Amino acid sequence: MIxxxxxxxxxxxxxxxxxxxxxxxxxxxxxxxxxxxDVLQFSNLTLDFNPLHFDPHIxxxxxxxxxIVHGILxxxxxxxxxxxxxxxxxxxxxxxxxxxxxxxxERVVAEVRPVQLRQNKDxxxxxxxTKCFKDREVVVIDGEAVALLPNLEIIDGK
Length: 158
Fold this sequence. Notes:
Elements: E1 28-33, H1 36-46, H2 56-61, H3 71-75, H4 77-85, E2 90-98, E3 107-120, E4 123-134, E5 138-149
Antiparallel strand pairs: 1-3, 2-5, 3-4, 4-5
């Protein structure tokens, strides 16, 4: 899905059958509400059983209002968003700054916005500004990603 929330002067797309091509300034989004089960499954995969994710008392003692979702789990929305729109994309790098906690049960929206597109042989190197928001405006993660895209045609996933 292409969204123009929070980013002014974005291109709009018509509902014609012509393929939509990724341009600088477009915004790709996805959202997720992280559950107890998500946190537990992630902990089992990573062996990260930090009590901040499971014990509300310890989380509060550490300055949080409740249990927090793993930051890397929240950041996983970025490659998910890119792969959803570009089958065969290869994630090359990601920088992250964790700005605010995400609590279990909160909905997060990830935004991936291309800031640089460069053709390299038969592929495209795309540099993206990446942000996650909660409550529509609170930035929880800020960063940049680079991905190798097979083409610039956006898949709607419909």
